[in-house]
Write a structure and sequence with these properties.
Distance between the termini: 6 Å
Number of strands: 5
Radius of gyration: 12 Å
Strand content: over 45%
Number of helices: 1
Helix content: 10-25%
Oligomer: single chain
Length: 64
């Protein structure tokens, strides 16, 4: 099995996004795009916590 990780970051109001070369993508857009490439979403891994334990960054995990 091969895995791919996509870093999601919190923006204003803890709205998560992934910045690519030409646009910002929401988590749902990332899942749809990765599914079109044959990947399956399997979960996420917390990367960075902010004040009071708020999740600031996480990696979405996809399996091929």
């Amino acid at each position: 099995m091969r895995y791919k990780y996509v870093r999601m970051k919190a923006g204003i109001g803890l709205v998560y996004y992934c910045r690519t070369e030409d646009r910002k993508m929401t988590p749902r857009q990332v899942i749809d795009e990765m599914a079109a490439l044959g990947y399956r979403y399997v979960g996420n891994v917390p990367v960075k916590l902010g004040s009071y334990g708020a999740l600031v960054e996480y990696d979405m995990v996809f399996e091929l």
